Amino acid sequence: MTAQADVGYHARQHARWHWSEIAFWILALACAFLFPSRYLIMTDIVRLGLFALSLDLILGYAGIVSLGHAAFFGVGAYSAGLLALHGVITEPVIALIVAGLVATVLGFLTSFLVIRGADLTRLMVTLGIALLLEALAERFSDITGGTDGLQGIEMAPILHLFAFDMFGKVGFFYSLSVLFLLFLLARRIVHSPFGLSLRAIKNNPLRAAAIGIPVNRRLIAIYTVAAFYAGIAGALFTQTTALASLDVFAFERSADLMLVLVIGGTGYLYGGLIGAVVFRMLQEVFSTITPQYWQFWIGLVLIVIVLVGRARLHRWVLWAPNLIIRQFAGRKAIVAVPESDAS
């Protein structure tokens, strides 16, 4: 077997669906029936998971750090809100796509600034873009509503069939469907030759350029795609809450996103989804127990994760399912460990 064929074989094996992936999505769907009174928080988790997935595409696969990813989230949120408020596009799915495209344009235009310099420069540039957009949104309060946000947003039924309800049931299934479709697209991207070239760029950009990979064009492309995903997440926020305010541009939103990826890990797509679930659950539990000090306990959990190691925690979680599979299948199960943590 030649080296090229061997690489292709391992890439196809790595791209195959693992049993834990199928179980993850079945469990996500089952939550709608297991916790019928928690649709609102589950919808929030889905939105956060999609937002984290967008950052993972650039951080986990291309090595682009960002502290201003909320810029695209906010643009998507305000675009969806303005489209609905002024009756330009009342159908949520179409408005969702348009809002994502608006964020895509912003991502493409700002990508030329982000790809320049080292990590510290990228941090400052992305943070500056988010702060600039927040200032502009506050300056043009006659359009954005200023500190009060957009008032009187009414969303039409999805596909003119499914109207949003006050319990959040329709919003949850709508958000989960969008997340799953975009996850499939992201999975196809990262397992394609384009995704493999991103890994090469992250590991060694100079060597990647030496073997003929157009580094800057690859980084611009993935940064633009990530902006689209973040814009979709922001549009989902507005459509499911009927709210868009200056908070969507806040630095805390980008900071929370980094915490989500610290908890879940980067470079394997599910890190953002798992991190979103854990982060929101911890926030819910700790804010109930100690409303004033919940951030302290989340910080303590992060310290434990760093000291113990995410890969070790991952093996502990999957120990029982793998034991059951070995008993029934008669063979050793393979534990999926994130590449970024295994190295």
Automatic annotation (TrEMBL):
Q: Cellular component per GO?
A: plasma membrane
Cite the CDD domains for this sequence.
TM_PBP1_LivM_like
Q: Please indicate which superkingdom the organism of origin belongs to.
A: Bacteria
Q: How does it sit in the membrane?
A: Multi-pass membrane protein
A molecular function (GO) held by this record is: branched-chain amino acid transmembrane transporter activity
Please give the chief subcellular localization of this protein: membrane
So where does this one cross the membrane? 22-41, 48-73, 93-115, 157-185, 219-237, 257-282, 294-313
- Supply the alphabetized keyword list: Cell membrane, Membrane, Transmembrane, Transmembrane helix
Q: Which residues form a coiled coil?
A: none
Tell me where in or outside the cell this protein is found: Cell membrane
InterPro entries from the xrefs? ABC_transp_permease, LivM-like
Mind telling me which PANTHER family this protein's record contains? Answer: ABC TRANSPORTER ATP-BINDING PROTEIN (PTHR30482:SF17), HIGH-AFFINITY BRANCHED-CHAIN AMINO ACID TRANSPORT SYSTEM PERMEASE (PTHR30482)
What is the protein named?
A: Amino acid/amide ABC transporter membrane protein 2, HAAT family
The scientific name of the source species is: Bradyrhizobium lablabi
**Phylogenetic placement of the source organism:** Bacteria, Pseudomonadati, Pseudomonadota, Alphaproteobacteria, Hyphomicrobiales
